[in-house]
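FAQ

Q: What does a record look like?
A: Structure on top, sequence underneath. For example:
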């Protein structure tokens, strides 16, 4: 099994359950409030660890109670946190509004913006060819770019979840073996509404393997045989927060076991489907025994 190196964010998630999303300038009453451990990087690291992978985490937290709690939670999952650094900035936070299983999210980067190239150098120094780098875009863009370039040069397998995506996200595709956007992120990268066209464009232009997560519709991917869609089991969604992160962590775990790509995707869909039947990001991530 290959090691998985996750470079990404760690956030304290604050969730309000609401009857509907408020209009601009409107105040409405919600049903409940809760906090949970989150951040796309940490979520993906936890997913991989719970599914049996050996995981190393590189991130930045504040010198505060939230940061200490988040780091301890990763330690409890068996994740190597030697590369989780402290910053004078506050620990990152996400404010989530949850309505009938769908959500809107605002992220305050905080210490996540302090993840540096110097830290990435230290993080990847002991990695080996065939190990996997999994990263996202909730940390510094240049650091993510450097990490992907370094991993590619070291013959690691590079996986990017381009979230949140912007016009510069496509600049990273050439350093990726796999890129896993959702539908919105895919449109941003390709400047097209057509999923098939977008996947083919990324594959032909950059040579990486594009995978689009499609929520309740499963996922789509483009390989030598063209675009293929994989459905997922239909369930009642309670909370979709973290489903994409569960998918990414599960995909990389299967990949680290040497599975074929389509089998990795089927495994990832199964794990993500379970996660949406539960509330919270990290609390919803399943363990390997549940999948089996």
């Amino acid at each position: 099994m290959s090691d998985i190196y996750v470079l990404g964010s760690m956030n304290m998630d604050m969730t309000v359950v609401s009857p509907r999303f408020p209009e601009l300038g409107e105040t409405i009453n919600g049903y409940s409030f809760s906090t949970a451990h989150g951040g796309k990087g940490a979520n993906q690291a936890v997913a991989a660890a719970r599914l049996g992978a050996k995981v190393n985490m590189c991130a930045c937290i504040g010198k505060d109670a939230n940061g200490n709690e988040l780091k301890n939670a990763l330690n409890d999952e068996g994740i190597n946190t030697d590369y989780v650094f402290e910053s004078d900035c506050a620990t990152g936070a996400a404010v989530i509004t949850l309505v009938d299983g769908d959500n809107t999210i605002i992220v305050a980067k905080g210490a996540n913006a302090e993840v540096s190239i110097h830290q990435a150098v230290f993080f990847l120094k002991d990695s080996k060819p065939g190990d996997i780098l999994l990263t996202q875009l909730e940390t510094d863009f240049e650091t993510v770019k450097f990490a992907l370039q370094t991993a590619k040069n070291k013959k690691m397998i590079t996986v990017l979840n381009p979230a949140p995506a912007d016009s510069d996200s496509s600049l990273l595709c050439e350093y990726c073996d796999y890129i896993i956007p959702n539908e919105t992120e895919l449109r941003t990268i390709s400047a097209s509404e057509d999923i098939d066209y977008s996947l083919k464009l990324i594959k032909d232009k950059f040579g990486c393997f594009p995978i689009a997560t499609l929520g309740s519709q499963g996922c789509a991917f483009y390989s030598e045989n063209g675009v293929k869609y994989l459905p997922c089991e239909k369930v009642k969604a309670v909370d979709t927060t973290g489903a994409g992160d569960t998918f990414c962590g599960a995909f990389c775990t299967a990949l680290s076991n040497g599975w074929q790509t389509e089998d990795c995707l089927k495994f990832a869909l199964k794990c993500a489907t379970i996660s949406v039947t539960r509330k919270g990001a990290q609390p919803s991530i399943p363990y390997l025994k549940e999948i089996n």
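Q: Is there anything notable about this one?
A: The chain is about 35% helix and 25% strand.
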